[in-house]
Amino acid sequence: MPNDDQKKIKLPRTAKGKKPQYFADPTVDKLLSMVLTLMGELSVTRDRLDTVERLIEKHGVFKVDEIEHYDIPDDVDQIRSERRSAYIARVLKTVQDELDALQSKGDGKNSELDD
After folding, report:
1. Phi, psi of 18 (to 5 degrees)
2. What is the pTM assigned to this prediction?
3. Which tens digit of pLDDT belongs to each residue from 33-68?
4. Among residues 54, 51, 19, 12, which one has the least CA distance to residue 33?
5. 93: exposed, middle or buried (Cβ count in 10 Å: 0-12, 13-18, 19+)
């Protein structure tokens, strides 16, 4: 079990250096990155759901139909909202990285969008 000092260490999640470009239009590369991130997230989610459903059946905990009628408690709703926000941030990371790079270069304004 990690102690409090180990829990506070947060590694940078932005790679340094120039990113490889696979398509002539860099926007396509960003879209591909977002799609691949979504594929990874969906694959993990499906595996976890499959595990839960198999355990439910194995242990006879409840009927799978109860999932459809589950009333979400507020604390669970809060946890899901936070997880959803982190998920969206991961999917849109390439867009956020570009916005951060633009802001670090100048005033963050995009003359094409400001017109």
Report:
1. -80, 135
2. 0.50
3. 889 988 998 999 999 998 998 898 889 988 777 887
4. 19
5. middle
Q: How far, in Å, CA of 31 to CA of 25, rounded?
A: 10
From CA 60, how far away is CA 105, in angstroms rounded? 58
- Please report which helix (H) or strand (E) contains residue 85, including its range: helix 74-91
Give yes or no for a contact between 48 and 56, defined as CB atoms under 8 angstroms apart: no
DSSP string computed for 13-59: -S--SPPP--SSSHHHHHHHHHHHHHHHHHHHHHHHHHHHHHHHHHH
The Cα–Cα gap between 31 and 113 comes to 20
Q: Which amino acid type is present at position 14?
A: T
DSSP state of 74: H
